[in-house]
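--- STAGE predict ---
source: upstream dedup step, 1 unique chain passed
mode: sequence only
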Amino acid sequence: MPAFLTDIGTLRGIGTAVVFIAFVAVVLWAYSSKRKSSFDEAANLPFADEADSASRQNQKAGDDKP
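--- STAGE serialize ---
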């Protein structure tokens, strides 16, 4: 192993740089305009589940009528 990589400070610096680059990549991915529609759809999933259960309850109520 090269001598400059044996210093713990250098290894920590390289690790910090790698983590920082990964963080910036995730932030750019998350705020990409190409991803907005899929994130909006995912954000509304909890509400879609409530709407589905409400429509199922309305259907069951309609089935009970003679």
